[in-house]
Amino acid sequence: MKKTRLFTPGPVMIPEDVMLHMAQPMEHHRTSFYRDMLADVTEHLKYMFQTEHADCLVLTGSGTCAGEAAIVSSIHKGMNKALNLSGGKFGERWGKICKAFELDYTDHVMDWGTSATAETVTKLMDADPAIDTVICVHSETSTATLTDIEAIAKVTQARDAVLIVDCITSCGCIPFKFDEWGIDIAFTGSQKAMMLPPGLAFACVSPKAWRRIDKAPCHAFYNDLKAHRKAIRSWDNPYTPANTLVLGLQKVLHGFKERGLENIWKETHMLAEATRSAAKALGLGVYSKSPADSVTAITIPDGIDEGKLRKRMRSEHGMQIAGGQDDLKGKIIRIGHMGYVDASDTLAVIAALELELKLQGHNIELGSGLKAAQEVIFKATQG
Amino acid sequence: MKKTRLFTPGPVMIPEDVMLHMAQPMEHHRTSFYRDMLADVTEHLKYMFQTEHADCLVLTGSGTCAGEAAIVSSIHKGMNKALNLSGGKFGERWGKICKAFELDYTDHVMDWGTSATAETVTKLMDADPAIDTVICVHSETSTATLTDIEAIAKVTQARDAVLIVDCITSCGCIPFKFDEWGIDIAFTGSQKAMMLPPGLAFACVSPKAWRRIDKAPCHAFYNDLKAHRKAIRSWDNPYTPANTLVLGLQKVLHGFKERGLENIWKETHMLAEATRSAAKALGLGVYSKSPADSVTAITIPDGIDEGKLRKRMRSEHGMQIAGGQDDLKGKIIRIGHMGYVDASDTLAVIAALELELKLQGHNIELGSGLKAAQEVIFKATQG
């Protein structure tokens, strides 16, 4: 027997009951059934984003779709200038979107595995007073690196700049507080913490962001957030929504409310901490200088064939883990702690990793990774 | 007992086995499993679009997303001018997209329920030689009206113009021949003929269209078709795809191949013809001057409360039909013939319609609509 276990940092494993819930007979989206569901979902999304006054919007598309919507709706050509903090694959992408739409922006490129600080942002904004928008990735999935959004938001708030946050692999699994931190636009996707299939994306837009958005027309259509705001006022979407995924979303968000966001954050932290401890016990390093709890990037030592390792994790253990991208290809593996994954799954992937490392001749004591993980889990269970 | 039956012209009913097939454990999209599936799906999409040399691309989004992709990728600002043939809600939308992206275009507005002819297009192109792109809706869902794309394509082909066709409620259910007719870009969505939930869209792009697309950069990102072309060369998507829907798509497209497109077209025609005959027998009119077989718009006579009718169709019979949009609100109902709907379902909706009309005092003989429909079905069954 070989179960399929997905440890990629999105798509993630999905609860079986959510999958079957989405398999029920199709309902149309212009019905009271759907409107009631969207109203309920919106209320629960506010809880997930931790906001009271922002609008939570449901888009049909991937996280990139919502990122584009945030950028093209709020950065007006000839009126605004964005500072894009880029320390990985996704930071790069938001800069590419600014470029494609011919927006005024500047990329601040950082070493992969590091994150921007409030001091850096202050310095960069001081040096270029035209900057009135900052784009920042909370948890950079490609490097498993966390940025201190709370600190950066203090800088943007003080200057009345608009802060756009990619919270694709943070919101819903690690601490994320839209209102309290002072974020203006945040966006995420369905296939991460929300443990759904890919196909939905979410944008959270503050009243301050709307004031900016309303200052000029948006030169895009599908991703114009104003169309979404207009529709949501009557619990509708501007274009046909991926409504089976909305069904699943409602079920997942109810589960979030029952479990409590803080408990989810704690559990994700425990899984990440257990994985990092196991990696160290196995003589492996944690890649990021500022590791995020949603996904762990583990450096692969010389002599270990990362491609073979990942391939065998799949063929022999049914486990899908992620490799590195671009320059990190072959150098790291990434294990996700988002979605429908628990301590048992995490121990399972550590166990398989131990076996495969040993098979490739890496000098480890079998069980040492598991022991280190167990210590973390035991401690967390106690309190 | 009250079954849910969806007769809206998208979303449509979905085969139960397809729904359950999509509920299987999640697989990642950067695996040989997904790549093999995407290769197979692409091959089958070519059959659906009836093309040999065009690229078939899978986008995550609604049909509007794919429409925007077709428009912003191929119409370059300052280089091209589009003629948008607008005779309904969707024709209007493609013009709005041109406007949002500040493209050079002109709307040719027609009476709703009518369609453009080759002669009109010839005249309009003669009058404005700058026009090098024509945007046209094959089956205008808002009015259930068909346009003769084959004839219009002859005009655009002769002038080497690019023809963009919205085949959202045509491709896969009524005759549509990309290569033979000479279309350059066509696009559709998953929740129509393909009998899937909403969330995927498809674009079919000819070599001639690619030459146009390659002439200048696209000033959009998520909907830049070039990114999709690059990805599909290695059976990949540029951004995380709605992969559970791709699973369902593969199953549906295999079914299309087994049933044969021509048989599907015949069956859709039979359902439409049966519905139109029933409407006439019940003293109701068919709204469109050029009715499409994918959806039928039936005019509601004075004295019948359309809102109440539609509401009771749902509450008393479990059936969801569509009303009219904008000026047609309250004046027509629309019944779809796409997706997982057969003759029995179609008879069921006619029967419910008869009952509700009679209850509202409309002077009809019960069973007369059914009889008219049966005559059509019987004739079709005989071959």
CATH homology-level superfamily of the largest domain in chain A: Type I PLP-dependent aspartate aminotransferase-like (Major domain)
Largest interface: A-B, 56 and 55 residues
Enumerate the spans of chain A where pLDDT stays under 50 for 5 or more consecutive residues.
none
**Domains of chain A, number:** 2
The CATH architecture of the largest domain in chain A comes to 3-Layer(aba) Sandwich
The CATH topology of the largest domain in chain A corresponds to Aspartate Aminotransferase, domain 2
CATH class of the largest domain in chain A: Alpha Beta
Largest sheet of chain A: 7 strands, mixed
Total strands of chain A: the figure is: 15
> Which structural class is indicated by helix and strand composition of chain A?
alpha/beta
Give the averaged pLDDT of chain A, no decimals: 97
The helix fraction of chain A, in percent, is 40-55%
Rg result of chain A: 21 Å
Beta-sheet strand percentage of chain A?
Answer: 15-25%
Number of helices of chain A: 14
Strand order of the largest sheet of chain A: 2-10-9-8-5-3-4
SSE pattern of chain A: EHHEHEHEHEEEHEHEEHHHHEEHEEEHH
Shape of chain A: globular
Oligomeric composition of the shown chains: homodimer
Whole-Å distance between the termini of chain A?
Answer: 35 Å
Description:
Two copies of one chain form a homodimer. In chain A, 56% of the residues are buried. In chain A, strand 3 (82-86), helix 4 (89-100) and strand 4 form a beta-alpha-beta unit. In chain A, helix 11 packs parallel to helix 13 and helix 11 packs antiparallel against helix 14. Chain A has helices spanning 16-21, 32-49, 63-74, 89-100, 118-127, 149-158, 178-181, 207-213, 225-232, 243-259, 261-281, 306-317, 343-359, 368-382; strands at 5-6, 55-60, 82-86, 105-109, 133-137, 139-140, 145-146, 162-166, 185-189, 200-205, 285-286, 295-299, 319-320, 322-323, 332-336. The first copy, chain A, is globular, with a radius of gyration of 21 Å. By secondary structure, chain A is an alpha/beta fold. Chain A folds into two domains: 5-10 and 260-382, Aspartate Aminotransferase, domain 1; 17-259, 3-Layer(aba) Sandwich (Aspartate Aminotransferase, domain 2). At the A-B interface, helix 1, helix 3, helix 4 and helix 10 of A face helix 3, helix 4 and helix 10 of B.
